[in-house]
Amino acid sequence: MELANLSPETSILDPVMAEEIEETQPSTAVEPPTIQRRVSGKQRRLSLEEYRITYLKVPIIIDRKPVFVSCEVRDRLEDYVRKLGGRKMSVSGLLENIARQHLDTYDADFEQWRKL
Fold first, then answer.
1. Among 16, 24, 51, 66, which residue is least crowded by beta carbons within 10 Å?
2. pLDDT digits over 11-59, tens only?
3. Is the dihedral of CA 80, 84, 87, 90 positive or negative?
4. What does pTM read for this prediction?
5. Which three-class secondary structure string do you get for 78-113?
């Protein structure tokens, strides 16, 4: 039964009519809440070591070219490098490592995408 077929005198739906209306409405599935697992200190240290090995090693850059980033990004990267990197590490070195990792990861894809 549709709501449009109700008489103007009907102000409250009876239970049977309410069930019919609910059945025509699409049901929404309730997803179980995600469980947030704790990360141990050992796992964090291993993760930091992996990050340092990948991104905070001092790269050898033979032919440098300028690259521009916003002041906000530069300041954030400089803060990370100062806190986590070694004495000789710089923002330029971090960006070099990030770019190299990105290029290594997507090198085969770049060739396929170029052909599209």
1. 66
2. 455 555 555 555 555 556 677 777 777 777 777 777 888 888 999 999 9
3. negative
4. 0.60
5. HHHHHHHCCCCCCHHHHHHHHHHHHHHHHHHHHHHH
